[in-house]
TrEMBL record, chain A:
<feature type="transmembrane region" description="Helical">
    <location>
        <begin position="145"/>
        <end position="168"/>
    </location>
</feature>
<comment type="subunit">
    <text>The complex comprises the extracytoplasmic solute receptor protein and the two transmembrane proteins.</text>
</comment>
<feature type="transmembrane region" description="Helical">
    <location>
        <begin position="62"/>
        <end position="80"/>
    </location>
</feature>
<feature type="transmembrane region" description="Helical">
    <location>
        <begin position="365"/>
        <end position="388"/>
    </location>
</feature>
<feature type="transmembrane region" description="Helical">
    <location>
        <begin position="279"/>
        <end position="300"/>
    </location>
</feature>
<feature type="transmembrane region" description="Helical">
    <location>
        <begin position="400"/>
        <end position="424"/>
    </location>
</feature>
<keyword id="KW-0997">Cell inner membrane</keyword>
<dbReference type="GO" id="GO:0005886">
    <property type="term" value="C:plasma membrane"/>
</dbReference>
<protein>
    <recommendedName>
        <fullName>TRAP transporter large permease protein</fullName>
    </recommendedName>
</protein>
UniProtKB/TrEMBL annotation, chain C:
<feature type="transmembrane region" description="Helical">
    <location>
        <begin position="130"/>
        <end position="150"/>
    </location>
</feature>
<dbReference type="InterPro" id="IPR007387">
    <property type="entry name" value="TRAP_DctQ"/>
</dbReference>
<dbReference type="GO" id="GO:0005886">
    <property type="term" value="C:plasma membrane"/>
</dbReference>
<keyword id="KW-1003">Cell membrane</keyword>
<feature type="transmembrane region" description="Helical">
    <location>
        <begin position="12"/>
        <end position="33"/>
    </location>
</feature>
<comment type="similarity">
    <text>Belongs to the TRAP transporter small permease family.</text>
</comment>
<feature type="transmembrane region" description="Helical">
    <location>
        <begin position="45"/>
        <end position="65"/>
    </location>
</feature>
<dbReference type="Pfam" id="PF04290">
    <property type="entry name" value="DctQ"/>
</dbReference>
<keyword id="KW-0812">Transmembrane</keyword>
Length: 434, 305, 169
């Protein structure tokens, strides 16, 4: 068998294993390990298994994952999330789907604090899902909102996705961050529009709450003040140079814990249980990431990217044609691969093609990152959907995938708008940097 | 025909590709009429990050890889001497020094592999934001990014506060003011986009430099035909190391040129009497390190004595 | 025999989770000390060494408990349409496969710990041997692998699994 045939067989087997409800991580481990064994020998497979598990579990950036989970868990035990949602409910609860809209806006705010979509979906999921449940929101809407809203983490700066893209494509990090701002706000607005349409078609998805008086609103906001102030201080600490975005996760968790102790809403036993729950969620998420890092080198070794490039170059599709085909390839690959690994695998191949066609690489970066976000929520391997599943174990995975579909369509529309109007991506960087 | 897998944790556009991967491939495929080739696996396709590259070669994930001893300095105590301030004069290339010291002093730090190249980077400079460095006093209380413990001691000897941080976070750290600067080679200005956020650069003090290796799995080498071994031996060592170090200097020079051309930047070239203050402050750090790793012989060999 | 094994395994799972939980609280405290100290010009020396190594314990300390709580995510689209017999077989296969994966990972990490000893790999500032954490990692995933193996045996002997189907859509 040729390497490409081995890779396609591997993908086919992965789909079958997933359909047989083999855990996602186990299936990727198995196919990746056996595939590398077939292509590169057993030593290579064993070596990668040991080094990826240790390296990712000691990665100084991924450490935000358990820290943000803990922050979300403690905010939930201490009632901070509840009070936050009571405030949101008092203000926008009487609008249909108001809490879902508030959650999306919260995701946008959290995206300004975190460079990672995984961290965004985890924290917002921990904070918001049980709250929306309490107000009788349809789980399809609430989980869909968090899974999709979480992806804003890599479009709104700071963004790990843009940093990796910048280094691989030799573009400016600062320009890419600026380029992501307007598309990020556009996508956020499209999500809000999606919620509005969904609740118009099916009012039961986000039921209307009772109207509240002005003083009730003020009181609710006052109750939520601690968590709002803590979040703003954490964002301020990053931009004020007190700590890095990675450390912000630890500072955020520590601040919520200390605030909980100070207000006597947290005791040591609750902290212990919240931490114990956090390591369980962490294990589930990290195992999928480690498995993805075993599966990706298998596809790299199979030379599939080179194969794709040859097909692409031989077709002569023109600027928009090539662009659309590349984005389609990202959508297909994104269905299977973890996003950042996919960038590393494919950008070195696509960037020269794109740049030879005279396509602006900043604009292309925005389109690629948005397509990456679509991959995070598209089946069968939708990391953000798995994340939401890990914090909402009672909701069937199928239901979450159904719930995110409208938002996936919203992303597709946003992508089309960004392709049609490159200035939406390029205006800010051209204004603010020379 | 046999293909060697060369693991590159950086982008394919990085200096390493032309200077080492392609050069190695061109040389050995020409010498063996295409019987032996080298293929680069870029962007960490064979496993990400610089720290594990040596291990990946030993484990057979890759046949050849490049890396920085600085990421796992405990494995390379004597090789790391070349990174210390004033170990070598600034204008003297590092690769001949490393090769001179290799057989007697450094070989034991490279078990289970065959080193194909050892070289040094351009000299370290001060890469600062909103702080002009002309003397050690200008560094008092500033937060400077470091990677390893000896760099940390050097920073402390200059009166600054060392902050441990991965290179990938330096951009953001400089931008937000979390750190005031970094001590590193000028090539990081383009490789990690630091030129976008730093605005003051101080050149001329001997702050040491980085060291790099290319290693090949020993078992894979031993399994090659005599012809293929000869093809590798012909390019390994002096030729490949020089190609790498020269290319590094060219990249760094271009970055310094670009920094000088930008009128928003301050580029400070220290005068000899200003340099002396740094030399005096840093000499005890280098002496202490060399003594701690029992490296007097290695240093003497590097310095050609 | 089997009940004793179950008790021992459960204790090992709890011990693993205990280590992971302590490590997570330790990471939070370390980051806080470092950030506050740095604001006063006295950062915690080697904080990155401490947090990244503790992270290893956080990730793998919770692995066995995660599995026990059914936390490994799978695609539950079709399980409702599978006959009970097939669901039992799948449950057993999943546990056996997971067991093989974790035990292989443990073995691979033990082998690479040997390499870390040979190469004297240590953290960059504090010089903590990397092999310590690789041994710990290997121990934690071997516990996970054995727990999965035991559960597979329990399912086989009982002829039924503790499989719960997801809520009705
Ligand atoms: Na972000
Ligand atoms: Na996907």
């Amino acid at each position: 068998m040729s390497p490409v045939a081995i890779a396609l067989t591997g993908i086919g087997l992965l789909l079958i294993l997933l359909a047989l409800r083999i855990p996602v991580a186990f299936a990727m481990f198995l196919i990746g390990f056996v595939g590398i064994w077939a292509l590169n020998g057993l030593d290579a497979a064993m070596g990668l298994l040991s080094s990826e598990s240790f390296t990712l579990a000691s990665n100084s950036e991924l450490i935000v994952i358990p820290l943000f989970i803990l922050m979300g868990n403690v905010a939930s035990v201490t009632g901070m999330s509840r009070r936050l949602y009571e405030a949101a409910y008092a203000i926008v609860g009487q609008i249909r789907g108001g809490l879902a809209a508030a959650t999306v806006i919260g995701c946008g705010g959290f995206a300004a604090l975190s460079g990672s979509s995984v961290a965004s979906a985890l924290t917002m999921g921990k904070v918001s899902l049980s709250e929306m449940d309490r107000y009788d929101y349809d789980p399809r809407l609430s989980t869909g909102v968090v899974a999709a809203g979480g992806t804003l983490g890599i479009l709104i700066p700071p963004s790990t996705g843009f940093v990796i893209y910048a280094i691989l494509s030799e573009q400016s990090i600062g320009r890419l961050f600026l380029a992501g701002v307007i598309p990020g706000i556009l996508l956020l607005s499209m999500f809000l529009l999606t919620i509005w349409v969904l609740c118009l078609l099916r009012p039961a998805m986000g039921p209307r709450g009772p109207s509240t008086s002005g003083s009730e609103k003020v009181q609710a906001v006052m109750n939520a003040l601690p968590i709002i102030v803590l979040t703003l201080l954490t964002i301020g600490g990053i931009y004020g140079g007190l700590f890095s975005p990675v450390e912000a996760a630890g500072v955020g968790a520590g601040a919520v814990i200390l605030a909980g102790f100070a207000t006597r809403t947290l005791n040591f036993r609750q902290l212990w249980e919240a931490s114990r729950d956090s390591i369980v969620t962490t294990a589930s998420v990290m195992l999928i990431l480690i498995a993805a890092h075993i599966f990706n080198p298998f596809l790299a070794l199979s030379h599939i990217p080179d194969f794709v490039r040859e097909v692409l170059i031989s077709q002569n599709l023109g600027v928009i044609g090539t662009l659309i085909v590349i984005l389609l390839i990202y959508m297909v690959l994104g269905a299977f691969l973890e996003g950042f690994a996919m960038l590393v695998l494919t950008l070195p191949i696509f960037v020269p093609i794109v740049s030879a066609l005279g396509i602006d690489l900043i604009w292309f970066g925005v389109l690629v990152v948005l397509t990456l976000e679509m991959g995070l929520i598209s089946p069968p391997v939708g990391i953000n959907v798995f994340i939401v599943k890990s914090v909402a174990p009672k909701v069937p995975l199928g239901k979450i995938f159904v719930g995110v579909m409208p938002f996936w369509v919203a992303m597709l529309l946003t992508l089309a708008i960004l392709i049609a109007f490159p200035q939406l991506s390029l205006f800010l960087p051209s204004q603010m940097m020379q | 025909a046999q293909e060697l897998k060369f693991a590159n944790f950086s982008a394919p556009t990085h200096t390493i590709t032309a200077a080492v991967v392609d050069k190695l491939n061109d040389s050995v495929s020409a010498a063996t009429n295409g019987e032996l080739t080298v293929r680069g696996y870029h962007g960490g396709e064979l496993g990400s990050g610089p720290a594990d590259q040596y291990v990946r070669v030993v484990q057979g994930v890759a046949d050849v890889a490049w890396g920085l001893p600085g990421y796992t300095s405990s494995q390379f105590p004597k090789t790391m001497i070349i990174e210390m301030p004033d170990a070598l004069p600034l204008d003297q290339p590092a690769y001949p020094a490393l090769l001179r010291a290799f057989d007697d002093n450094l070989a034991s730090e490279f078990p289970a592999t065959k080193p194909l190249a050892l070289w040094g980077s351009e000299p370290n400079i001060f890469i600062m934001k909103s702080a002009e460095i002309r003397s050690p006093a200008d560094l008092a209380g500033l937060k400077i990014r470091v990677a390893g413990s000896s760099a940390g001691e050097a920073v402390e000897a200059l009166g600054a506060t060392p902050v441990q941080m991965p290179m990938t976070q330096v951009y953001n750290g400089l931008q937000t003011g979390l750190i005031d600067g970094a001590i590193s080679g000028a090539s990081t200005l383009s490789d990690f986009k630091l030129d976008e956020v730093a605005d003051s650069f101080t050149l001329g003090a001997n702050l040491g430099r980085l060291v790099f290796f290319v290693v090949m799995n020993q078992g894979v080498y031993d399994g090659l035909s005599d012809e293929a071994k000869a093809a590798i031996d012909a390019v390994a060592g002096e030729e490949l190391s020089k190609s790498a170090e020269d290319a590094w200097i060219v990249t760094a020079d271009a970055a310094v040129e670009a920094a000088r051309a930008d009128e928003n930047n301050v580029v400070i070239d220290l005068k000899p009497e200003e340099v002396a203050a740094f030399t005096d402050a840093l000499a005890p750090v280098t002496d202490a390190y060399v003594a701690a790793v029992d490296g007097a012989d290695a240093l003497a060999a590097m310095q050609g004595e | 025999m089997l009940p004793t094994l179950r008790m021992v395994t459960d204790r090992l799972i709890n011990l693993s989770a205990f280590l992971g939980t302590v490590a997570l609280i330790f990471v939070v405290a370390t980051v806080l000390f470092d950030v506050i100290g740095r604001a006063f010009g006295k950062p915690l020396y080697g904080s990155l060494d401490l947090t990244t190594m503790a992270f290893v314990v956080v990730v793998f300390g919770g692995m066995a408990l995660c599995d026990k709580r059914g936390g490994h995510i799978s695609v539950d689209l079709f399980e409702r349409h599978f006959p009970p017999r097939l669901n039992l077989i799948i449950d057993i296969v999943v546990d056996l496969l997971g067991s093989v994966i974790f035990l292989t990972m443990g073995y691979a990490v033990l082998k690479s710990a040997q390499l870390s000893v040979m190469l004297n790999l240590r953290t960059n500032l504090l010089g903590i041997p990397q092999a310590w954490f690789q041994w710990l990692l290997a121990g934690l995933v071997i516990v996970t692998g054995l727990a999965l193996l035991l559960r597979a045996i329990e399912f086989i002997l009982a002829g039924e699994s503790d499989h719960e189907e997801g809520p009705i859509e």
